Structures are given as C-alpha cells and as structure tokens.
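Morning. Coffee machine broken again, so started the prediction first thing and wrote up yesterday's gels while waiting. Chain of 108 residues, entered below exactly as on the submission form.
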Amino acid sequence: MEANLPEKRYYSIGEVATALDVKTSLLRFWEKEFKQIQPKKKQSGVRKYTPEDVQQIQFIHHLLKEKGLTIEGAKKELKRIPSGDPKRALIEKLQKIKVELLQIKEQL
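Came back before lunch.
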C-alpha cells in the first residue's frame, strides 16, 4: 500500500491518517505498541511524521490490515526483518520466490 502524500519533510497525524484511511487514534495506539513509530513531537504535543515514519506505518498497516496479523504477530515480523527495513524484507522475499520459480521452470 502506498500512501498518496506529497513529498515533504514532515507530515501531520491527520495527513498520515487520511492517506492510510485510518483514524488518528489508531496511529496514536500504534505509536504506543510499536517502537518503530517515533514521530517528532513539539512541546505542544503535535506530532510530525518523517517520510521514514510514514514508511514504517505503511508496513505496519500492511501487516495488520492486509496480512491480518495480530499486534504480537506484527511485532514478531518486524523483529524478523533485518534492521527493520520493510523494503529489504520485500526484496528478500521476492528473491526467494524467484529461486522457487526458477526451480519450477527447470522441472517443466
């Protein structure tokens, strides 16, 4: 899932919530549950999300909403991913699929 956000240095919680079609309260909840989400906070408490924060949130959204994992399952998946990089995890998964497809091709 790719959030439709303009390129900026920081995004508000409302912008991120709208892009992912979730409520701001859910983002606050995920922030408490997942150490990977650490938006910058002004003294007033206003959250500012970096593009990297948004990427992490998108991956967590994918694990929870699209793959149907529980919070604990998503935490385990995030720990399993090398250095917490969802792109690297996806590349590794695609490489494994490629090897499997090449093996199947050889069998044909």
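The radius of gyration is 16 Å. Going to sketch it on the whiteboard this afternoon.
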